[in-house]
Design brief:
Layout lengths: L13 E3 L21 E3 L9 E2 L8 E3 L10 E2 L6 E3 L19 E3 L10 H5 L5 E3 L8
Parallel strand pairs: 1-2, 2-4, 3-5, 4-6, 6-7, 7-8
Amino acid sequence: LDSSTFSGLISVGNLDLSNQRITVCEPDAFRGMSSLTSLNLADNSLETFTCTDQSIPLQKLNVARNSLFRFPIITLPTLNFLEVQNNAISEISGVDQGSQLVTLNISHNVLTNIDILGLFGKQLQSLDVSYNQLSA
């Protein structure tokens, strides 16, 4: 998905691109989508995902069951629901310190440690880190 793929679709609020064999998603692929609140990129072949366009009011992002090896780089103040389960993520970095995440599913990855409070703050209400390699 390149930067011009969705240009002009300013009224689309829900975009489902799951199961499309997508391998690359440019950081500005959703630029100008000023109504986009829900994006589903699950079940593709993405190795990285970056979304830093703060004009996108994205609230829900699903990048589960891809080939992500690092935590998605997201600086969206409106994002409150993130699904990144069933990837190959070994560490969490690139998190916006102003994150408003309420729900995070990062199960079925290869995390060995995690500092949830330091990364996501006290607003997090639902967290699934099952099936990782966390140690006490």
